[in-house]
């Protein structure tokens, strides 16, 4: 099967924007081929505002996302391979998802991110906020099979 990260990323982006929130990406700044404003990198990561009002020429496909934006008043084209995306969340409430780190393949021509399953109920919480305790009891699924 093809990797699910591009589909999940697009779905979370659309969901965040549709709810009038601001989508932010957490990107691994050390990932190969990433083109980002390095002056804003902290601890090997950068947080990028990818809201439609903040960027132009936004493009996302199954391998990468790119856009033009201004950083410190200077225009820049940003390029992020999807394997470098660590999380997507809404700035206003932290709702979103965290992706697992990918293993790097030896041959770049065969690069295809190996993805692990993602817990969609897990909420991204920025480092400066305390982690809330997890409930002892797991909620049942709200989905039903209809025949």
Report on the architecture of this protein.
The protein starts with a helix and ends in a 49-residue tail after the last strand. Strands 2-1-6-7 form a four-stranded antiparallel β-sheet. A three-stranded antiparallel β-sheet has the order 3-4-5, with no helix packed on it. Helices cover 10% and strands 28% of the residues. The longest helix is centred in the first third of the chain and has 14 residues, at 5-18. The protein contains one helix and seven strands, in the order H-E-E-E-E-E-E-E. Strand 6 (85-90) and strand 7 (96-98) form a beta hairpin. The chain is mainly beta. The chain is globular. The protein has one helix at residues 5-18; strands at 23-28, 45-49, 56-60, 64-71, 74-81, 85-90, 96-98.
The overall average pLDDT, rounded, is 79
Based on helices, strands and strand pairing, what is the structural class? mainly beta
Largest sheet: 4 strands, antiparallel
Outline:
globular
DSSP strand tally: 7
What gap, in angstroms, lies between the N and C termini? 27 Å
Mind telling me the C-alpha Rg? 16 Å
Helix content: under 10%
Poorly predicted tracts of residues: 103-145
In spatial order, strands of the major sheet run: 2-1-6-7
Count every helix, treating DSSP H or I runs of 4 or more residues as helices: 1
Which H/E pattern describes the elements?
Answer: HEEEEEEE
What percentage of amino acids are in beta strands? 25-35%
